[in-house]
Design brief:
Elements (H helix, E strand, L loop, with lengths): L10 E4 L6 H31 L6 H28 L5 E3 H34 L4 H4 L2 H27 L8 E2 L6 H5 L7 H34 L6 H26 L9 H22 L2 H16 L1
Helix pairs in contact: 1-2, 1-9, 1-10, 2-3, 2-9, 3-5, 3-7, 3-8, 5-7, 7-8, 8-9
């Protein structure tokens, strides 16, 4: 008798972002240009924060980790998508698909938890400033970093474990440009209702709760700032506004994709494209453009290397 979780399908055929060759070439050129302009900027942010002794506050420590996570996240989907644009047959192996899915949710889950940690950091800094140096000490920052990496791993391994139990014995055409949970589950040769509910709970519900919790926390912070007469109010408002922008960019598409039953909508591919390719590269840049200390340090670093 064949095992319930046996898998016959050895590879998946990706139907891609679009079937129009002209649109494919246009997106290829735009993404390539965007990739080679923004990605080095993310690495410059990491280098600046690592080398400048004036950027040792927890805010910059977490910003450097955000840039690292987003740069790593951008390598999961974009490079393969660019290669597939030039290929007639877009194929990914079963193991390659599972690997891509694992890292997608590992890094994505870790980034979501990192935004929660950054919100906690801002709450302590603005609402409990006298306790900030005690609560957000270096040991606590590294402990929080370890927790968010472990959280991302647990979230992702649950996704992978549920998919590995599914049998794939027939259809192997994924209507997307990368492997993700909603499309892969639909190809299983069994009833996936319970698995879909578990996936929606693991991804969708947790994403929605984090999103609402983050918005509530920043609402509390902003109310506290407006109700106080402390110095640096405009800087605090600017920092929190930037954080809220990133939260909307990251959680908005994720909520659209994962908090509903896994049925295809016409907007899915476009939302997934911005969620996996564009927004991860933009997030640290948005932070940096609104942070005067980091911008000044980056200019100083660049000018020093130009002089040398």
């Amino acid at each position: 008798m064949e095992a319930e979780n046996s898998t016959v399908v050895k590879e998946f055929i990706l139907l891609g972002l679009t079937q129009s060759r002209n649109i494919q070439l246009l997106v290829f050129v735009l993404v390539l240009i965007f990739y080679f302009i923004i990605l080095p900027g993310n690495f410059l942010i990491i280098l600046t924060i690592r080398t400048d002794p004036g950027l040792t506050a927890p805010l910059y420590f977490f910003l450097g980790n955000l840039a690292f996570l987003d740069a790593s996240y951008s390598f999961i989907v974009a490079p393969r998508m660019l290669v597939d644009f030039l290929s007639e047959k877009k194929v990914i192996s079963y193991r390659g698909c599972i690997t891509q899915l694992f890292f997608l949710h590992f890094l994505g889950g870790g980034e979501g938890l990192l935004l929660v940690v950054m919100a906690f950091d801002r709450y302590i800094a603005i609402c409990r400033p006298l306790h900030y140096s005690t609560v957000m000490n270096p040991r606590a920052c590294y402990a929080l970093l370890l927790v968010l990496w472990l959280g991302g791993f647990v979230h992702s391994i649950i996704q992978v474990a549920l998919i590995l139990r599914l049998p794939f014995c027939g259809p192997n055409r994924l209507d997307n440009f990368f492997c993700d949970v909603p499309q892969v589950i639909k190809l299983a040769c069994t009833d996936t209702f319970v698995v879909e509910l578990l996936m929606v709970f693991n991804s969708g519900l947790l994403t929605l709760l984090c999103f609402l919790g983050l918005l509530s926390s920043y609402a509390v912070i902003l109310c506290h700032v407006h109700g106080s007469a402390c110095e640096g109010k405009s800087k605090a408002v600017s920092t929190c506004t930037t954080h809220v922008m990133i939260i909307l960019l990251m959680f908005g598409p994720a909520i659209f994709i994962y908090t509903r039953p896994f049925r295809a909508l016409s907007a899915d591919k476009v939302v997934s494209f911005f969620h996996t390719v564009i927004f991860p590269l933009l997030n640290p840049v948005i932070y940096t453009l609104r942070n005067q200390e980091v911008k000044t340090s980056m200019r100083r670093l660049l000018s020093r290397h130009v002089v040398c």
